[in-house]
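Revision sheet: C-alpha cells.
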Amino acid sequence: MALKNSRPTSPARRFYSVPTFEELTKRKAEKALLEPLSKSGGRNNTGRVTSRHRGGGHKRQYRIIDFKRGKHGVAATVKAIEYDPNRSGRIALLQYADGEKCYIVAPDGVKVGDVLSSGPDVEIQTGNALPLKNIPAGTFVHNVEMRPGKGGQLGRSAGNSLQLMAKEGNFATLKLPSGELRKFSVDCYATIGSVGNSDHENISYGKAGRSRWLGIRPQTRGMAMNPVDHPNGGGEGRSKSGGGYQHPVSPWGQYAKGLKTRKRRKQSSKYIVKRRK
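Predicted:
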C-alpha cells in the first residue's frame, strides 16, 4: 500500500494524505457477510455518556470476520482483498473448497488466487493458521488467541504482529507489539505473518472534518476550562491550574500521567513474563 499526498490548494489539503487503495480488488462487500451496525454515541444502555468525544460519523455496515479459522483441513482460495471501514487493516474474502465464503484479516503479502488453510498439520505459510505448538520459534504471527477456541484477539490492526520467542511445556512465550513478553497456551491458534496495510500509521488526516467522518468529536483541554468544570481549570492567564503547578488529572481527579491503572490482583498477571515498561 502507498499513500497519496495532496497539493496544498487549501489549508486542509496541505497535510492531507490518503491511501492509494491499489491493493483492493473488489469494491462491494459480500451481502451475506454484512450485518447492520448501530452507533452508540459513546452512551451506555441507560443513555449516559460513558465514552466521551464520540458521535456522528459516516454510516457503516459490519463485516463478519472469521477470527477462529475453525474450518480445519479445508483449503480456501483468496477471492478478493477488500476495504473494511471498521478496522485499519484490509480484509480478504476466502472461498472454501465446499463453497462456503468468509472474511479474514488480510495478512501482508497475501494476494488473489493464493490457497490458505488452517489446522494443526498445515505448512508454515503466510496466511495459514496453526496452534502455537506447531509454529517454529522466531516466527511472526498475528490474530492470536488468548484462550484456545475463543478466536484471535491480539495482533489484528494494520501492520501488527507478535513474535514467538520460546516454547516450554504447555506454554509459549510471545513478544507483543508493545514489547511485553507474555505466556499463551500452546493450543492457542495464530496466523502466520503480519497484518497488511502497514502504511496506515503514516496517514495524515489534514483537517478536523476527517476526524468527524470517523465519529470522533472535538475535545477541549481541561486547562482551558473553568474550575467548576475541571480540576485543571482556572488561573489568570495560562497557568498550571490556579497559578501553582498541578499534576494533570482527568475530570474526575484521577492522575492522567504515570498512574498505574492495572488491577494489582488481576488473574492474568501471572502470564506476563516482562511488562512493556
